[in-house]
Amino acid sequence: MEKANRLTLFILIAALAAVYFFVFGESGIIMRMELGKQRARLLERIDGLKDEGARMRSLYARYRKGELNREEARIAGFVEQGERFVFMKGARDDKADKAPEGADPGYFPQIDHLRILWVVISVLAVFLFLARAHRKAGDPAAS
Question: Is the pTM higher than 0.85?
Fold first, then answer.
């Protein structure tokens, strides 16, 4: 293989690798966009929980003042001291809470497919380059 072809091959491989790392890598552009969306969802959920906390404090203040009877307070979710309650995880129907079982919360499954596709395209590009270089090296009229 000629020196110029080696340099071109090296540049091709370096460019393909750079795209892979900067676009599809763990801290690549796609992952950063997905993490930004996840951050926005979490901030929205935090705001919702703050609102729910304020509502619960208001209900508690009404109960302490005697504006709510014991049964209304129980329906609102208050538990008196010494009582027991059961908390069922997943009983709420929040779409933000649902994720594949055992999956990392920051996991973005489509990126795996994109990574595989990029590797296949990269390998094909290198093979096509090598085939073209081999064909030119064997063809005396191409020189």
Answer: no
